[in-house]
Specification:
There is one protein chain. The chain is an alpha/beta fold. It has 3 domains: 229 residues, DD-peptidase/beta-lactamase superfamily (Beta-lactamase, 3-Layer(aba) Sandwich), CATH 3.40.710; 104 residues, D-tyrosyl-trna(Tyr) Deacylase, Chain: A (3-Layer(bba) Sandwich), CATH 3.50.80.20; 75 residues, no CATH class. Helices cover 32% and strands 26% of the residues. It is built from 10 helices and 20 strands. Strands 3, 4, 5, 6, 7, 16 and 17 form a 7-stranded mixed beta sheet that branches. The chain has a 5-stranded antiparallel beta sheet with strand order 2-1-20-19-18, with helices on both faces. Strands 9-8-15 form a 3-stranded antiparallel beta sheet, with no helix packed on it. A hairpin with a 7-residue loop joins strand 12 and strand 13. The longest helix has 31 residues. It is globular and about 80 Å long. The two termini are 32 Å apart.
Length: 464
C-alpha cells in the first residue's frame, strides 16, 4: 500500500511539473516573440480531460476574431438546428398543365439559402419541368426569396471586397455560390484569347479585349464592372498562359432565375416572363433539392467558406422562435444561446455576422473557449463539429501547416485571417493523452505568416 501511495505521489509530481513546464515554455514564447513588440495576442488553453485551465494570457480582452467566428456559428447551428437539418430549394407551380403542355399558371423556385446549389442541381429542376410535361410557362417564372431580407451584405463588410468570390451577394437563391468561373486560354500571337465562362447563362456579357503573347502590354486582368453593379465581364491585357478567376455576380437571385430560364429555353421550354414573388401555400410541389447540414458545415469550417457560414447563420433566424428573415434576427438567436447555454453575457461582445468578415465583430479568447468546451461536452455536437474542423497537415486551411512531429494530424482547429488579424481555435491532444482546447488571437499583425508561425509554436508546445 505504501508503494502504491508513493507511486501516486510521484505521478502527481510529474503532472505538476508537466503543467509548470507548459506554462514556463508558453510564457517564454510570449515574452520573447518579436511579433508581439508591435502587436497584441490573447491566449487561453484548457485541459478538457481534467477539467482545469492550463494557460491564459490576456484572454478576457476583446479582439476581432476573423474566421474563428465560424466556431460560434457552427456550434450554435448544431445545437439549434441539429445535424439532420436540411437546406431545401423547392420547385412548385400554380394553375393547370393542359393537354397542349402549357402551364396556365406560375412556376415558383423557392429559395432555401442552399450555399452548395450548383448547376447540376439546376439541371434537376429543369428535368423536373420536363417530366411534368411542361413545354411552355404561360404565367411567370417566379423567384421566391422571401426567406431573407434584401440586405445582401453583412453589417461591417468591406464594400471593395467585391467582385471577389469570397464576398458573394447573399440571397436565398444561390447558384454556383453566386459566382461565375472565368477561364482564359491564349491563342496565336496578337489574337484574342479564348474565353469560357461557367455556368453558361445569358445573364452576363463578355467584353474580351485581351491579346495573346504580347508581353509589353499590361498583365492580364479579369474583372467586371462591379462599381456600377454591372455584369459585364472585362478581360484585358496580355494572355501569356492559361488563367482564370472566379467573380461574384450582381445580384445572386437574378443570376439564379435568369440562368434557370436560360436552361429551360435550351431545352425548348418557353418562359413568357419572370418576376419575384411569394409562393402560395396551395402551390403543387414539383421537386425539391435538399442539402444536409453536414455538407454546409464542412465547407464552412474546412474551407473557411463565408457563404456557407452565412447560410448557417441566416437559418438560425429562419428557424428561430420568431421566424426571422435578417441578420438581426440571427443575432438574437446567437445571443440567446450564448446567454442560456454558454453562460456568457452577450452584451459584453459583438456578434454581427456568421462568417467573421465584419469589422464589427468583437470576442474574447475566453468566450471562444466556452464554445469549444460546450461542443466537447455534448457528443451530438462534438462529433460532427470535430470532424468538420481542418486537420493539421492534412486538409482544409491547415493543409500546409504543422506537417511535422506531434502536431501533424493532431491539431483540429479553425483558422482566421483578415487584414491585421490572425487567429486559431480548436483542439490538440497532449503528449500524455489529455485533450486540450485552445484559442489564439493575434491582433494588429502586419505579417500573417509570422502570426501563423507563432500559433504553430504554441501548438507544438501543447502537443509535446
Amino acid at each position: 500500500m505504501r508503494k502504491l501511495g508513493l507511486l501516486l505521489l510521484l505521478c502527481a509530481g510529474i503532472l505538476r511539473l508537466y503543467g509548470q513546464d507548459i506554462t514556463a515554455r508558453l510564457d517564454s514564447l510570449v515574452s520573447s516573440a518579436a511579433l508581439l513588440r508591435t502587436s497584441e495576442v490573447g491566449i487561453t488553453v484548457f485541459n478538457l480531460t481534467k477539467g482545469e485551465p492550463v494557460y491564459t494570457y490576456q484572454d478576457q480582452k476583446l479582439y476581432r476574431p476573423a474566421s474563428i467566428e465560424k466556431v460560434i456559428t457552427s456550434v450554435t447551428a448544431l445545437a439549434r438546428l441539429g445535424e439532420s437539418y436540411t437546406f431545401d430549394t423547392r420547385l412548385a407551380y400554380t394553375g393547370t398543365i393542359g393537354a397542349d403542355s402549357i402551364l396556365q399558371g406560375n412556376l415558383y423556385v423557392v429559395g432555401g439559402f442552399d450555399p452548395e446549389f450548383m448547376e447540376d442541381d439546376l439541371h434537376r429542376l429543369t428535368d423536373a419541368v420536363h417530366r411534368a410535361g411542361i413545354n411552355r410557362i404561360k404565367g411567370n417564372l417566379v423567384a421566391d426569396v422571401s426567406a431573407m431580407d434584401s440586405i445582401y451584405w453583412g453589417t461591417g463588410w468591406a464594400w471593395d471586397d467585391t467582385p471577389n468570390a469570397f464576398q458573394p451577394y447573399l440571397s436565398p437563391l444561390m447558384l454556383n455560390r453566386g459566382c461565375v468561373n472565368v477561364s482564359v486560354k491564349p491563342g496565336p500571337k496578337g489574337r484574342r484569347p479564348e474565353v469560357e465562362v461557367f455556368p453558361c447563362s445569358d445573364y452576363y456579357e463578355i467584353d474580351n479585349r485581351a491579346v495573346s503573347h504580347i508581353p509589353h502590354i499590361k498583365p492580364l486582368e479579369i474583372t467586371r464592372d462591379w462599381l456600377y453593379n454591372g455584369n459585364t465581364i472585362h478581360i484585358t491585357g496580355n494572355a501569356s498562359r492559361a488563367s482564370g478567376r472566379t467573380l461574384n455576380m450582381f445580384a445572386s437571385q437574378a443570376f439564379f432565375i435568369h440562368t434557370f430560364r436560360y436552361q429551360l429555353m435550351q431545352e425548348h421550354i418557353a418562359v413568357d416572363s419572370m418576376k419575384c414573388g411569394v409562393c402560395p401555400e396551395e402551390a403543387t410541389l414539383l421537386y425539391k433539392v435538399s442539402r444536409p447540414l453536414e455538407e454546409v458545415l464542412k465547407r464552412a469550417l474546412k474551407k473557411s467558406d463565408n457563404l456557407s457560414a452565412e447560410a448557417l447563420f441566416y437559418h438560425l433566424a429562419i428557424c428561430g422562435e420568431n421566424k426571422g428573415i435578417g441578420a438581426e434576427d440571427a443575432q438574437k438567436v446567437v445571443k440567446r444561446f450564448m446567454r442560456q447555454s454558454i453562460g456568457k453575457n452577450p452584451d459584453d461582445y459583438s456578434i454581427v455576422d456568421g462568417s467573421g468578415v465584419s469589422m464589427y465583430n468583437y470576442v474574447s479568447p475566453d468566450l471562444m473557449l466556452a464554445y469549444l468546451k460546450y461542443a466537447y461536452s455534448h457528443q451530438e455536437i462534438f462529433a460532427p463539429f470535430y470532424e468538420a474542423l481542418p486537420v493539421a497537415g492534412v486538409d482544409g486551411t491547415l493543409r500546409y501547416r504543422m506537417r511535422k512531429e506531434k502536431t501533424f494530424r493532431n491539431v483540429h482547429a479553425k483558422t482566421g485571417t483578415v487584414k491585421g488579424v490572425s487567429s486559431l481555435a480548436g483542439y490538440v491532444q497532449a503528449g500524455n493523452g489529455d485533450m486540450l482546447a485552445f484559442v489564439i488571437i493575434n491582433q494588429n499583425v502586419m505579417s500573417g505568416r509570422k502570426a501563423r508561425l507563432f500559433q504553430d509554436k504554441i501548438c507544438e508546445i501543447l502537443a509535446q
